[in-house]
Design brief:
By secondary structure, the protein is α+β, with helices and mostly antiparallel strands. It has helices at residues 25-33, 123-127, 146-162, 164-179; strands spanning 5-15, 49-54, 59-64, 79-81, 84-86, 133-143. It has two domains: 8-142, no CATH class; 145-179.
């Protein structure tokens, strides 16, 4: 019924950019976990996490793939933190038209972190020996129909961008992978 609440576990990964050394193990394990079949290959371009690396400036920023967006921002921001200047779009999690990040290289479909669904601990957290990624969990009450609304908004955006047939084909491929 609309308005009813249910409990939901919210998983948060705390990111400490000062601890990240840019080793990219998180990208490798993520792409490998999502390969079909699992662990059969790895290609960081397919990872749902991307490490912004500028070694000469000692900048390493792990960024998780977030929502798909059909339009790019009208403006750009640059951040200066502790004397280091971060590029425009550096912290942005969106799969957006202005860049290639967080897009499946073959199909162009957006990639989004799924917290390694089914795994107790996200694999990127597990492999990060520098403790730059730390998992925290908390329980929250959410509206019963909130997840359904989010799903519908996501599907509507995808069909607008790629067309219904391409989205249906991708879903069919994903369900084949799950069955195998
Ligand atoms: S595994 Fe950890 S230290 Fe290595 S790049 Fe990823 S976040 Fe940084
Ligand atoms: S939590 Fe899992 S899906 Fe998300 S970036 Fe890390 S390894 Fe990839």
């Amino acid at each position: 019924m609309k308005g009813e609440k249910k409990k939901k576990i919210i998983k948060t990964v705390k990111i400490d950019v000062d601890k990240c050394n840019g080793c990219r193990a998180c990208e490798v394990i993520c792409s490998s976990f999502h390969a079909a079949p699992k662990y059969s290959s790895n290609n960081p371009a397919r990872a749902r996490i991307k490490v912004i690396r500028e070694p000469l400036s000692d900048i390493y920023v792990p960024v998780y793939a977030g929502e798909y967006t059909p339009a790019e921002c009208a403006g750009r921001d640059k951040y200066t933190i502790d004397g280091k200047e971060y590029d425009e779009c550096a912290f942005c999690r969106a799969s957006c038209p202005s860049r290639d990040d967080f897009k499946e290289p073959d199909s162009g479909l957006p990639l989004k972190c799924d917290m390694c669904e089914g795994e107790e601990e996200p694999l990127c957290v597990k492999v990060c020996l520098a403790d730059a990624l730390v998992l925290e969990e908390r329980e929250e009450e959410v509206e019963e129909d909130q997840e359904q609304v989010e799903l519908e908004i996501g599907l509507e955006s995808l069909t607008k961008k790629h067309g219904m047939q391409k989205v249906l084909d991708a879903i069919a491929r994903m369900s084949q992978k799950e069955d195998s």
